[in-house]
Amino acid sequence: MTDPTVKTSPRFQARMAGVFAWIGTTEGFAIWVRSRLVVDSDAAATAHNILAHELLYRLGFVADVISCVAFIIYTLLLYDLFRPVSRRLSLLAAVSNLVGEAIQLSIGVFLLAPLAVLEGARSSSAVNVAQSQAQALMFLNFYDYGYAISMVPFGFWNLLTGYLIFRSTFLPRILGVLLAISGFYYQINNFAEFLSPAIAARVEPYVFVIGMAELLLALWLVVMGVNEQRWKEQASTAGVS
User: Fold this and answer.
1) 114 — phi, psi (to 5°)?
2) What is the spatial distance between Cα 37 and Cα 52, in angstroms, rounded to a whole number?
3) Can you tell me the mean pLDDT for 96-114?
4) pTM, whole model, 2 decimals?
């Protein structure tokens, strides 16, 4: 009979988590697409760009969906990986990020709505084109608000996961420190979006730089995995099988 521990090797699990984390970077492509097509405060230009590059816009939407699914799997793998450190905190972190991903999936409808509105205006002479363009941009703005809300539990997940890494004995503590810093910075940016868009405009350009902590963690997981002996020792101490 095959030993089940071979299939659930913590190092293999960590590497799979890293793989799904990298798959989740398709969100970066989606963000790039929208940055190229959506023109703030210019509904007509935005509508023209979306209709002229409809396939690219749809690919951006698909990339968002792939990213959400990948991060759900990533979250579940990390939950199991960090149970030896703290069952409760690992569960809390997982639930927090799953809530964020659920919000992101649900607000995806705001990315599809502009297509329906603009294509309807193009096919019917009875529809006011300017109003349809304004509605399309409004839906995209709703998506941005929803995305900012989804980033609150995600930032919380970064903070908790960073703490779990710092307390673990099987991953470098510096990764936990950097991830926690990124989570704290995300929260600053999130609440600046809600309270002061002017401050958010100054904070947001550095979000992607701070977010490199997530890529460093993903890279470490793929290349190095975890220290399997230390993971097993910590799991044994915590009574995790």
Assistant:
1) -60, -35
2) 9
3) 96
4) 0.89
